Amino acid sequence: MSIKSIADKVACAGVSGANTGRLGCLSLFGTPTHFLAFNKGYKIPETADFDLALLTPEIQGNKIIPIIDASAFEDLSGEDSYSTNTSTVKRLNIKGLPEYKLTFEEGHEFYKELAKLESFKSYSFAIGDDMGNWMLVENSDGSFGGFSAGHVTPELTKRKVKGGDSESKSLIVQFLDRMEWDQGYKILHRSELTFSPSDIPAVNGVELDFTALPAAAETVLKASASLSSDHTSPVEGLVIADFVYTVAGVPEVPTAVDETSPGKYDVTVTSLVAGDTITLDLYDDTLKTNIIDSASVLFRSDLLTAEVIA
What distance in Å separates the CA atoms of residue 137 and residue 226, rounded to the nearest whole number? Predict the structure, then answer.
């Protein structure tokens, strides 16, 4: 069903006044545990289905960054402040802004990637809770988006102390539009969705290496693919549609790809010429992105470059 049709499915609503009655099912939100970072200005049409078929290509297209399964949450939101006149009458002065801190206990490759998110006013965020519900903003044009963010700060990684807490890294996000939080949000309840947060595919880094230096007159590039997180685990099952290479800056498509052993590939190319610079990368030509979908797992590699030897 479209995102519009399921938003606030169990919530009360009114055009004027305040509907404070308690009949019907309560719309509740649990502990924030997940973020979907949207590129600035990203919107989901109200007629779109909020499902993996929507999210996966948007993640591949670098429009959405999933940040899933935090181990802890801390609410750092600012308090509302008041001014008091000589008659001791209080008046609201400044509304506090929401600020959330999610802490993750993951490996160092994840921490390095988290550090890349440091920014100011570059993202908006959808927020997921520990029950699989999602909170988004409904825009004035009927579309849906994330909560407008100011600073996004990955904190310094905390090292493990013997007998103490595990090593961890936190991400702090301050949100800038209080109105979005007071009235402009909608909740998508897990019961109306077809996926859990853990189903959302995040991008896994891949390290490509030449197992033999490209040589003149050869027509096969011998390469290996392993996960960047440990530089050991082989990335299996890649096919011809997952690769692209360039010769002297000119993009080419391999004529064949053969996985000779787990994570080891023979990539058939045109005859190589000594002195040419050759690159090899993962690429989805349909979506025109360097993030590929292999058996519902997303991968992105660093560009592999070498000079063809004589």
Answer: 39
> Number of structural domains, the chain?
2
Contact status, residue 25 vs residue 10, Cβ threshold 8 Å:
yes
Q: What is the distance between the alpha carbons of residues 212 and 288, in angstroms, rounded to a whole number?
A: 28
Q: How far is CA 163 from CA 73, 108, 168, 169, in A?
A: 22, 21, 15, 18
pLDDT of amino acid 21:
74
Burial letters 109-121, b for 16+ CB under 10 A, else e = ebbebbeebebee
Nearest to 139 by CA among 184, 176, 201, 195: 184
Q: Token pair for residue 40?
A: 């600035």
- Residue 289's CATH number: 2.60.40.1220
Task: Note whether 58 and 146 are same-domain residues.
Answer: yes
Q: What is the pLDDT of residue 27?
A: 76
- Pairwise CA distance, residues 189 & 129, whole Å: 10
pTM for the full predicted model: 0.87
With a cut of 90, say whether residue 4 has pLDDT above it: no
* Residue pair 234/262 in contact by the 8 Å Cβ criterion: yes
44 phi, psi to nearest 5 deg: -105, 120
Question: Quick one: average pLDDT of 22-35?
Answer: 84
pLDDT confidence of residue 75: 97
Q: Rounded CA gap, 300 and 160, in Å?
A: 30
Give tens-digit pLDDT for 221-259. Answer: 999 999 999 999 999 999 999 999 999 899 999 999 999
